[in-house]
Amino acid sequence: MKYNCIVIEDEPLAMERMVSYIKQVPELSLAETFENAASAMEYLKSNTIQLIFLDINLGEVSGIQLLETVHIDCPVIITTAYPDYALRGYELNVTDYLLKPFGYDRFLQAVNKVKHLAVIKENNTPANFIFVKTENRVEKIFFDDILFIEGMRDYRRIHTRHKKIMTLQTFTDFEKNISPAIICRVHKSYMVAINKIETVAKGRIYIQSKSVPVSETYKHQLFQILGK
């Protein structure tokens, strides 16, 4: 699938970087760029777009105000230097929230999330498992078996209901392939299965007899998923 996309960004250097990143992804086609939200809103009235890259601080009309005002059917990836709007962004159903400065790898991760969600929507049958490389084999793990994933230097330890599995696959790999509504990043060293959470209290998540920390960076997304 080809994604016609637009970039709404008022910083010339940031715009130049975004255009460069987009050109490196074959599935993306840059339809137009805008320095302000008002011009983009007019464009969206008469043009069909599959993806929007949206800055927040845009002058008179902010990116958040655009999302609150215009009905948008396509995925939106926010690009901003300010983490303060993350919760509001997720409340408005943005697909991802990129904090500047971000590199090409993080940009590609966000695009891959858009593609992954599109496949799920098209098939209408979400994948309920993931394959991971462990030791000398590839093992299938069902999402419903996972309790949490723990970072251990170069390795990730997947705690399941039945056993623990060590893998070199990164948190980025898991985030690209698993919806945060199923298994959510809650700390630089942890992801947890949402349906296995028993209690969240005083900055920690309790799952069975285990306790997992929640960091400031990820707690807004967690509480948004939990509806709190």
Helix content: 25-40%
Integer average pLDDT: 88
Structural class: alpha/beta
* Biggest sheet details: 5 strands, parallel
Percent strand: 25-35%
Can you walk through the features of this model?
With 228 residues, the chain is of the alpha/beta class. 32% of the residues lie in helices and 33% in strands. The protein contains seven helices and 15 strands. α3 links the parallel β3 (51-54) and β4 (76-80). The two termini are 35 Å apart. The relative contact order is 0.10. The model has no long low-confidence stretch (mean pLDDT 88).
Indicate the topology.
Layout: E1 3-8, H1 12-23, E2 28-34, H2 37-46, E3 51-54, H3 63-69, E4 76-80, H4 86-91, E5 96-99, H5 104-123, E6 129-134, E7 137-142, E8 146-152, E9 155-160, E10 164-167, H6 171-177, E11 183-187, E12 190-193, E13 199-201, E14 204-207, E15 210-213, H7 216-226
Parallel strand pairs: 1-2, 1-3, 3-4, 4-5
Antiparallel strand pairs: 6-7, 8-9, 8-12, 9-10, 11-12, 13-14, 14-15
Helix pairs in contact: 5-6
List keywords for this structure.
five-stranded antiparallel beta sheet, 228 residues, 32% helix, alpha/beta
